[in-house]
Amino acid sequence: MTDSTAPHVSSFPWKKGTVVGLYGISGCGKSFLLKQLKERFEKGGPFVFIDGSELIAECVPGGLEVFQKMDKALQKHHRKNAINMIQKLHTDEGRVAVIAGHFVLWDDEEADLVEVWTYNDAMVYTHIIYLDIPVDIIQEYRYKDEIKRRFPASKKQLQEWMQREVAGLGKVCPENDILLTSVHTSDPLDRISALLYNFMEQSEPINLFHAKMKIDDFVARSQGQLETVLVIDGDRTLVAEDTGKLFWQIQMARRGMNDVQHEDPIQVLFKSRLGYSYTAFRQATLIYEELVDEEEFKNICHEVASMIKVHPEFLSLLHAVIETKHIGAVIISCGLRGIWKNVLEAEGIYDSVGLIAGGRMEDGIVVTAGVKASLVNRLRHTHRTHVYAFGDSPLDLDMLKAANNAIVVVGEVHNRSKTMEAALLNAIDKDGLRTFQVMLPENTSPRLDIQKLPIIKLTDQKFLHSMFRRGSRTMKFQVRHATGKNVAKLLATPTRDARVKGPALMDCHRSIGRYLAIEHISDLMGVESYEIPHVQGHQTSGYRLSCERQTLIVALMRGGEPMALGVNDAFPLAMFLHANDPTDIKPEHLHENITILLVDSVINSGKTIIEFVNHIRKLNAVISIIVVAGVVQAQSIVEGTGTLANTLI
């Protein structure tokens, strides 16, 4: 059973562990900027601002003067201790630490630049903001600084220093999942303030939470009439083109750059070790923010939109959907919301279909492959709609697997994803994906073979009839059960056998918990892939519960413990909690978790479960709740009269 309360809150706990480095060469104005930031933000608020030099002076007996006379190894030791202390003192309190620091420094003895970045820096920092100030301004700052003694440096030396830092940070940040952005103005206070607020409010669980809010809002517009939803990818699906590629072609052309000689920065990013991860998409947002100001961004989005058209087949389908109350359509794209908004407006359908995409900080989210799949799962399992998903690339495969009906859109050969063929074949052969393909335009060649990937047409009347026919939504919450199945009979028998007692009986209940987790919970929540070492020595793909680390298993004592342990066997990364009473669940147990599994052996009236659900809802109104039990009395879940059913609706 799944609680489906729609999220309607606007504030979240700060992401624990957020540490922002404010970097730039000596004399670029970091200390002055820190002072401005301290004055702007209230003391004791969500941020703490720290000058790296002052921190070291406090940590080292004798201060900075003694530190500067130490050998390199001892200096490195104190730098490590300083960054670790910041993480412990401030981020453990839930505050965002902002530290002014350096990647390299001038060394008088060696008369050269020396890297001062440490392994601990790489492990602690989550974001780096680099002050990329023009060197002539920095030289003026250094000359006028009467407080700090700085070695005389030419503009060329300062430029080389900056290049060393930018290159070094550009290498270590993606290697350590650190988000990096540069600020190019000599008056960066407002820009950096906006970045800090964004960094404070963002994390992967919160990003997914925002995305789910958007899909909930989309469903709410139907006022309860929605039965079927079309989820459609954007690039090379709804349209033939890759709009992101067009964006950077235009941007580089405006700067006199040849796109043959200069690869667009987003593609460079996605080819890095970050791949198409959440961190990569968040970094992509920072790239758009850094390299293209708001006005130019809007102009380029408008220009790209004017160059493309929605496939006529999709446009006809969308118009039919708009005229049908029980069907809705939503575009969910990893691309730029600004482009897709313009595309849909040009076709006159923006106000009639949903749109979920990112690209700028103001959009509030980034859309990853995992987000797409999660939103399809939410449409199916929370809102109980029948989902048709359309996509073209490996980023869409998890979404296609999660849908009731999956359709792969196949474009002209030169526009297709080059990696889709192998990934699609693997999904069909190994993951059991059942899908069709639609060719747009219709005369293009199909993918794979038509036995493995059958062809349909968006204009086929039988296909349209099956899509548009009305179904029934009998319940507003879901009940998954194994009643009557042979596996249930086999698992339940020893629990009813009077001869089975003690540890043996507990093991039987544990087995039931593991079965329910693998068979039903994994279907409700979905799974995600990750790399594991193969027995033959190479790496291969394994699977675990989607957002397993953000899942809390609560064993309702005493009866629920054996089954809960079985659930934990299936999901070992989840948090585990024993609860004798609802108040045993504290706010800190819900922090950053997105799903709670309440596990009990037997549910009669549902009174105990209701008490737990109501308590959880007071602490967190939006967290998903799944109730797991070995036996549930039918009367408790009858819609309209069942107390448990009425609570979970």
From TrEMBL:
GO terms for cellular component: cytoplasm. GO terms for biological process: L-serine biosynthetic process. CDD domains: PRTases_typeI. One of its GO terms (molecular function) is magnesium ion binding. It holds the Pfam family AAA_17. Residues 484-639 form the Phosphoribosyltransferase domain. It comes from the Eukaryota. This is Phosphoribosyltransferase domain-containing protein. It comes from Monilinia fructicola (Brown rot fungus).
